[in-house]
Structure formats: structure tokens, C-alpha cells
Write the C-alpha cells for this entry.
Amino acid sequence: MGIYGDYGTHTCGGYPGSLDNLQLDAQTFAAWGIDYLKLDGCYSDPKTMDVGYPQMTKYLNDTGRPIVFSCSWPAYQVSYRTPNYTWIAENCNLWRNFDDISDSWDSVKTIINYYGDNQNDLIPAAGPGHFNDPDMLIVGNYGLSMSESRAQMAMWAILAAPLVMSVDLRTIQQWQKEILLNKNVLAINQEALGIQGRRVYQNDILTIWIKPMINNQFAVALLNQGQDGGPYRFNMTLASMSLPQFPMYELVEGFTGVPVGTFRPNDYFATNIDVSGVYLFVAQARLGVPNSSPKAGEDQFAKLVQAKKLHVAGHQDPLVVKKHTAL
């Protein structure tokens, strides 16, 4: 069971906030059996959040109840300085960085582009138990087409984002339900390393995102942000997509799990991508090619993992929440 609160004097909707009552509210939430706390930041001084949010973390810990802690801390600081994401990751299980999502494709695109433009700050902070939160999935509401719904689901998986639905389950359509429950896409999102994907290519229409995963696997999203005309004709080598130089890859379509084929790094991969749509696939590196060395690919994979500054040993589930609010 989850609850919404606010670090300030009032919530964004004008109801009482938690300022000056953080300890009492933490104890009350625990007594109520709360499992998930979203603590917003309206009607507060963002300059005090570096102290205030960690105080709430301590008070939640002191209750002894496992409560997932969702913060809005950095979203209120980015307008005047770069937030201390190391400190935020130590105290929050997930945190908002940017504007609220609205029920439109333009809103989804704006959030995706924000995460690409600011990835050098955001990616190092993310990992098992502490994630950047691009806001809710709006799949199942009214603003997205089927292609756009698939694109949001795929991109939230690539971003290793918390998946919080906003749909009324009493009225959801079957095709929307199938997108939200797609086991192959969920497996990408819930993959054990918990590394947030990186935008590796961008032009006026297309962006390419890669998420390193366990066992030399990579989830790749080809996102068509164009809004006019027909599908985007994609044709590029795997090496040009910035995949590490393993001898070969076996590609599997991301939604269906259907094998696509075997490709070497310099082989071209071609497909059509719907307007406002995505092509998602998983590339499994293979090492057993005669007269070839896997070392270059393995070295690149190790650097990708190391660059995120994650201690991946022992993590089996990206939703293992850290000691302050263990699930």
C-alpha cells in the first residue's frame, strides 16, 4: 500500500505536509502498514532538502518497517544547481528529476530527451535499489496510440525505470494490458545489473539507446521520434550502433522473443520503425567463432559496467532495495 506526502508545509494539492513533523509522519505511515512513500517537495526550500530528505530516510529506518522511499528531491534543485546524486542515491530508492508526465506523446518524448541530454549525470547514480524515475507509465490512458504505448514501455525498460501504472484497471483495453504485462520487456527492465540505458546515437528523427545486461547481453531500442510520413527505414551495422566488438551477436525481437538472426559487428541490420514507434531487440554476444578473439568485446562490456560505478556482485534483482528501506 502506498501513500503520497510532501516534505514542505503543504502538498502540491494544498493538504498538510510533513515539514516539522517528519518523524511523527514516518511513525504514522509505518503504523498504517504503508509499503511505499512518495514524498514530494512543494511549499519547501530546496536548499534544505539535502538535510531534510535524509532525515526522513532515518526516521523511516527507525520504524523498522520496510518502506520504499520515492523522493522528489532533485526535481526541485535542477533549476539552480546539479543535485548531489550520490547522496540522493544513498537515501532514496527512486527519485524524480524532471517535469510531471501528462497523457500525451509529446510529454513522453520530452522526458525521454531529458534523460538522454542529462545522462552523464543520471546514469552513474542509478543501480539496484536506487533508480531514476521518469514518472508513471501512461499506457492504458487516452493519449497514446498503440505504437506510442509500445515505445514508452520499451524506453522505460531501457532506462531501468520504476514501473508505476496510472491506468484505471477497470477500463483498460486488452492490447494495453498485453503491453504492460509483456514478460520479455519486463525482463529487460528487471534485469539484474540494473544499469540505466544510454543514448548512443541521435539525429533529427532517430535515437538509439543501449542497456548493458548480464551474460554479455544488450537491450537496444531504436526510437522513431518523427511524427510525419511513413515508417523510418533503419539500416546500420551493429558496430555503428556502438555495440561492443564481440565476434557475433544473436538478435531477438524485444516484445515477441522471436529470433531475428545472427550478425557480426560489421553486418547491416535493417528494419522499419513506425512513426512515433520503437524497434526493441536484445543482442546476445556469442564468443565461439573460429579464428576470432572475444577479448575486445569483453573488455568493452567490462568498461560499460565499470563506468556505472556499480557493485554488481551478489545482486540478483534490481529491485533489491538498500538497507535503509529493504523490500
